[in-house]
Amino acid sequence: MLSRITAAVARRRRRAVLGGALALATAGGLTLAAVTPAQAASDDVVITQVYGGGGNSGATLTNDYVQLHNRGGSAVDVSGWSVQYASATGTSWQVTKLTGAIPAGADYLVAEAAGAGGSTPLTDPNVTGSIAMSATSGRVALVTVGTALACGASCAGTDGVRDFVGYGNVTDAEGSPVPALSNTTAALRGDAADSDDNATDFTVGDPDPAGTGSTPPPTGEPARIHDIQGAAHHSPLTGKPVTEVPGVVTAVGPQGFWFQDPHPDRDPATSEGLYVFTSAKPTVARGDSVTVAGTVSEYRPGNSATNLSTTELTRPTVTVVGHDARLPKAVVLGPAGLRIPRAVRTDSPGDVEKSATFDPRHNALDTYESVEGMLVAVRHATAVGPTNSYGELPVLPAGDPGVRTRNGGVKYTGYDNANTGRLILSSTLAKVPDANTGDRLTGTVSGPLDYQFGNYMLYPTASPTVVSGGLRPGTTRPQRAGELSIATYNVENLAPGDPQSKFDKLATGIVHNLSSPDIVAVEEIQDNDGATDDGVVAADVTWNKLIDAVTAAGGPKYQWRSIDPVNDQDGGQPGGNIRVGFLFRTDRGLSFVDRSPGDSTTPESVTSVHGVPQLTHSPGRVAPADDAWQDSRKPLAGEFSYHGKPLFVLANHFASKGGDDPLMGRYQPPARGSETQRDQQAVLVHRFVGQLQAIDPAARIVVLGDLNDFEFSDTAHTLTADHSLVDLPGTLPLRDRYTYDYEGNSEVLDHLMVSPSLLPRHDYQVVHINSEFANQTSDHDPQIARVRP
Q1: What is the DSSP string of 744-788?
Q2: Does residue 587 sit in helix, strand or coil?
Q3: Which of 150, 471, 613, 649 is deepest in the core (most CB within 10 A)?
Q4: What contacts 193, CB < 8 A, 6 or more positions away?
Q5: How many CB atoms lie within 10 A of CB 233?
Q6: Chain-centre distance of CA 11, in angstroms?
Q7: What burial letters (b/e) apply to 688-707, b meaning 16+ CB within 10 Å?
Q8: Angle CA(295)–CA(296)–CA(299) in degrees, nearest 5?
Q9: What is the per-residue pLDDT across 250-280, written as a single tens digit (0 to 9) for each?
Q10: Would the CA dihedral through 281, 283, 288, 292 be positive or negative?
Q11: How far apart are CA 768 and CA 13, in angstroms?
Q12: How confident is the model over 639-661, as pLDDT tens digits?
């Protein structure tokens, strides 16, 4: 799972029926959704008022409160966020969870505990908590998760803290604290400026609470949906009130509805559909004719600046003027209708939302924007990835010219080929059935077009019908006499607490699908208590439980070698301490050379013994103190002997792609900042291989594992520089060249590289048993090579 950012990004989906955590993706390390630390000025939601004297002697207001303000240009969904309070010197934090969204330019009022006095209650707060705040000194944090902070008495710079205010004599603040308050005074951030210095940004004055709860319906000018959408990624009316917007309700969700103008304009670049955010279950029905008044907002999902925003109406007043209207005809996407350009953008605009160019004829992002919120449809589509745990299914409309894989997926061939025809079906309005890659969706699937988490999504209004494409798990033949088989397998955060069924399925894959390889490099083995963050780093229970499952499945009795990491220093799920290691069998002329085994911090080295390279530590870690491995797994080098001949194997799990811009995101071309660390890691591994080959140019070397990068990447090219290694995935035909499916793109993230001395008389195969299946055991496919050392 940790091969992308699908890895634990919290999916706070305002529009979805389902919630969850995401992952995404990917690999290398499980991280929370991107957040802005308090010590970086927030460009949207900030704390603007803090008052702790409610109900105290002399107070007029009955309640304490915290007021927020969205100073950005688009709505911000704060569902799952929290306002938290700690005393002036305390180490425990009290939590009030937030819900809903804050429109651009709007306030959001969080009522807290009431005192015995006061005469004036707060008017329609957005959220009510029960925290009794100090009137004089305390600390308030705006946090992008709902769990209590665990940072003790010093939290202003903690990840997840979006804004922070210390007032009075406190241990912690942004810069200097606000002067002490009283029963009748509040901390006031007058113009919502955020310099990251509380004393500069706030003054002390009379409490002045306001929120969006009791705001009257907006007044404004009449408008049509195409006027609101405009021919751009941002509405020309953002932040302005509009009235009498007509349309027909096309779909109803749990917190809003889509409606569409049945009388479109003549401009194909302006969408005729729009989402109305009601924050609660709408009272309208599909087919109702309505007029809507509201404020035009741009909603950016996931609170991530790299996502595109979608235009919507907030704080709406909805008037139903008729029922059972005829729905507008859905726009068919793909070769049978509205063709999606192959290029995400033909230019390099940087921020597409600020670009002066809007060209739906040539830019895929602009084409999708031109039908945002409208009813769209795909016909006779093919699943190009499996249905994931969030009920999302990537599909490709019939006739799309993407490079197809053997099993019906679509191959990711390069940075300039995002396969823009891919569309994600989401279970927001109707369940999307489980499907495997290559399954077909019969007939037409239709629903509103939305954008979430880096992808355009179609929300079917009825569950699609799926016809199996007949996909079956791959297998490989057993190794023959004189052959040594070597495999790599990312087992996705394997921990003893996982269901026994996961261990059994992994064991079946190793024994039956991979035919019990002689060596298996394993990635993502967690420690003995999994994600419990308590200092445990040993993983012998995890290894032995996997080995026992293999034996029970009819496989050989494997042995294992690994090195426990320093606690919480190798990335991945906090507390899990994932690491790489080796499984190996000793019944076929293979043995592991145990020589002064290294520890978590001792670097591996190479010596020459009578002209033969030898590892100083076996197993040992490659350059574990180098900055290239910060928050990332360190490579494990092991020396094996096969029929008396040395074999050197390096197991790897390079840094995650988390943090890279999405292919279909706001910034074009997408930034791939995570590559820098992987390139540095590749340099170190390549250098280590060079040390072995400097002693013996014919040294038998295998470098393998989850490298979190593509076969055409600089990372792969660095490792194979000077012809020191051959990357076997690159030797396969395109249709077979993939180990992972990311949002419908079949791609190579796992590699098996061999030195030229092992290349003659070898064969190689990616064994597709996971990445294309909805019931996958891991999100990676294993791969195997058979060589004759």
Answers
A1: TEEE--EEEEE-GGG-TT-EEEE--SSTT-TT-SSSB--EEEEE-
A2: coil
A3: 649
A4: 201
A5: 24
A6: 8
A7: bbeebbeebeebbbbbbbbb
A8: 115
A9: 999 998 999 999 999 999 999 999 999 987 8
A10: negative
A11: 32
A12: 999 999 999 999 999 999 988 99
